[in-house]
Design brief:
The chain is of the alpha/beta class. It is 42% helix and 21% strand. It folds into 2 domains: 118 residues, 3-Layer(aba) Sandwich (Rossmann fold), CATH 3.40.50; 95 residues, Arc Repressor Mutant, subunit A, CATH 1.10.10.10. It has a 5-stranded parallel beta sheet, with helices on both faces. It binds calcium ion.
């Protein structure tokens, strides 16, 4: 899952981005409203953490512009403006949640998990496919309850595939949602990480649960299916 953090207090912005990266998200950070607007038009984010008092473009204006073209991306407003009017206005303008500063990082994490889960109608914090389970809270995967040691990227890829069961996910889509902007889109990073993820899952499951559709991408499959 890919997140954009828009916050002009650099230290706070860096701390949030770093914390979310440790949670396994691909994170980009931005200090300016106008720049954030550009990024949101150009890149595929799953969620935006949005401050309101920003240079370049006010957060509320940004949200209004964004919602004209994109209803999908989840927006969590993180602001020192904490009056009821501000919260109502933010939610009416199309924010999915509103957290007032100062805040506890654990609460921000919980709200982000909740929003991303909701977008996939996922009630539980644990995703399941065949014998595979993935604990989105503890950031760990298991096969038949036995832990599989995955790297952060492998886990993020598996999570994305498990959130889209039955769908063929392209390399580009994985690149967009699992890596941040620093990633080189021409690299073969996706293929390398898919290969190692595959190997680890196959070892535990006795078959390869990731099918490759030539020219299209990857999808999860049950044992015996092609
Ligand atoms: Ca600010």
């Amino acid at each position: 899952m890919r997140i954009l953090v828009v916050e002009d207090e650099m230290e706070l912005c860096g701390a949030i981005a770093e914390g979310l990266e440790l949670d396994g998200y691909a994170v980009d950070a931005c200090y300016d409203g106008a720049e954030a607007h550009e990024l949101l038009l150009a890149e595929e984010y799953d969620l935006v953490v949005l401050d309101l008092n920003l240079p370049g473009m006010d957060g509320m204006d940004l949200l209004e512009e964004l919602r004209k073209v994109n209803r999908e991306v989840k927006v969590l407003i993180l602001s020192a403006r904490d009056s009821v009017e501000d919260k109502v206005k933010g939610l009416d303008t199309g924010a999915n949640d509103y957290l007032a500063k100062p805040f506890a990082f654990a609460e921000l994490e919980a709200r982000i998990r909740n929003l991303l889960r909701r977008s996939f109608v996922q009630e539980d914090t644990v995703l399941r496919f065949a014998a595979i389970s993935l604990d989105t809270l503890g950031r760990a995967a298991a096969v038949d309850g036995r832990p599989v040691a995955l790297t952060r990227k492998e886990l993020a890829i598996l999570e994305y595939l498990m959130l889209h069961p039955g769908k063929v996910v392209s390399q580009e889509e994985l690149m967009e949602h699992v890596w941040n902007m620093e990633a080189d889109s021409f690299s073969n990073a996706v293929r390398v990480h898919i290969a190692s993820l595959r190997k680890k899952l196959k070892e535990k499951m006795g078959f390869d649960p990731i099918a490759t559709r030539i020219g299209q991408g990857y999808c999860l499959r049950e044992e015996g299916s092609v």
